Amino acid sequence: MGRGKIEIKKIEKSSSRQVTFSKRRNGLLKKAKELAILCDAELGLIIFSSTSKLHHFASSSMKSVIERYNKYEEEYHHQLLDPASELKFWKKEVASLRQQQNDLQEYQRQLMGKEKELSGLSFKDLQGLENQLEMSLKRVRMRKDQILTNQIDELKRKGHHIDQENLKVHKKLDLICHENTELQKKVNGNGTEEANESSKSLSHSYGFNNGYDYLQAPVVDLR
Questions:
Q1: What is the pLDDT of residue 57?
Q2: Where do the K-box domain residues begin and end (predicted)?
Q3: Residue pair 47/56 in contact by the 8 Å Cβ criterion
């Protein structure tokens, strides 16, 4: 069962706010470290809590990250004011994107595990590639297990629904059989009563009475 959605607004209770801050801060720092290692990214993360406590992380050093950021901002604003510099900037961006594309294609070929593509890699590179593959395989297995679990839960739900429907059908059949039995008893009972009435009628007609059978013959006067 998944967790409910948390409304994004300020947490009024200070103790709950501090617990949430600690959990999410640790998660954010962990993600920043993973991003720096996995993608070879230079990054800096600065966090000030509501109590003005500083938390930070830098892939190299915070000073170099800030200097690089300031330099980029200056170059960017300068390029916006100079059309020639802006054109040069975008050419540089295009070249950078193409290089990233080539790197990704090379990385994809390495993931395929072809010997030709792996021959130029060092032991450290191969170890890093192996870790990447293990992480990817772990995610694939987790996703596969989740799908299988969902399918099993769905089959159980359908099976339970079918069992309930079968139970309803059996109850209806039992009720119908009971009604048929009662109806048959009534029919048989009426037939017996009619047979008894017919017997009584015949008894009166031919002189059968009280279990003694006698025939009322005509009296002949012999005098």
A1: 92
A2: 87-179
A3: yes
